[in-house]
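Q&A log
Question type: sequence-to-structure
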Amino acid sequence: MMNPSGSIYEIRWNELCPWLILAKALRVSLLIRVLLYAWLGLMLTQWGWSAIESMAGNSQPQLERLAIDPVTVDLRVSDAENFGWQNYYWLRYSQGPLARAWSWLSWPIVLIFDQNTTFVSGFFKLLCGLWAIAVWALFGGMIARTSARYCTRDEIVGPLQSGRAAITKWPSTAGGPLIALLFALLLTIPLAIAGVFLRADVLAMVGGLLWVFALVWGILLAIVLVALWFGWPLMWATIAVERSDAFDAASRTAAYIYQRPLRLVFYVIVASILGLFGQLVVSGFAAAGSHLTDWAVSWGAGNERIVQLAEPPIPGDVSPTLAGSAAMAARSISFWKEMLASIAAAYPLAFLFSASVGIYLLLRLHIDSTEMDEIVLETGEESAAAAEIKASIPEILDDPEDISGGS
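Response status: OK
Response body:
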């Protein structure tokens, strides 16, 4: 039977291209509250790393800083990088914000597996990794829960609700990667014991002949660590959507990675492209806002005065050092500029945890055939849609006599 001419059909793009849900995750990452969650997590992470490095002495992990700490910015220092706030705005790293945040948070744990890492330095690197897990189990959990509610139900939850959800599941969120690390440690112990016997030449010869078994054991270790390395953001997403425990998060992540690796790669590519757009928006507004502020104020204060107070000095600058109230004004201006810079630098982290939820929902759809709008609500939570439906029911329905027409 032919369809009548002139019929209008609606194309359901979400069903045709389910990966468009990643655009909703992009919107979440651009929310001011989500950027603030990411900024708070970023600052706490870097402060914790600085404290651990100060205790480490010569065994410092020397981890990279994603943003400058506004509190530690000093006026008239010779290092121009301390004032290079604009360097953090534009696309400084070609891999994009998704890979940028993922690699930055993964790096302390990755450094442990360097053969040149000593026991002492490995211990401090592990402390840095555990601190990052502890911090982002809270702030990453808040971002992930916000993204989960928006991607599934188009609801934007407030800080109190997302914070309560993250605190409730903090042990599970932090426990996911810890379980994988513990399992990897258990697999490492037999190889380490075998390494002790290799110190003797005769036993080393035997070990060389049996090295194939060590390689097989090493492959098992690689399977665990690859799932942890690539999939730990999905553990956060699992907890945010399913409200399950650490074991479920770790097992789902490993299963999803190894069952649909090509789909995972495709979704990561799409998310990375969207993330570049989001980074451009955040960086552009931050840089434009800072520049336009200097430009507008210069009409009243004069360009030379604004350059003196608001522009960063360059190495070898021989201009007179500011003193008194002028120095305090310059410090304050520098502080707020660096504050804006650090918020923009935190965007990759905001996007990482919001996009991970979208990727998790897509993988769950194709592997478990679970609809993307399904989410587990905690006790006391009620969706906005359900609240509207409940409020729209006429009060007359509460009275059986009114239903029957009052006869």
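Response note: The two ends are 50 Å apart (CA to CA).
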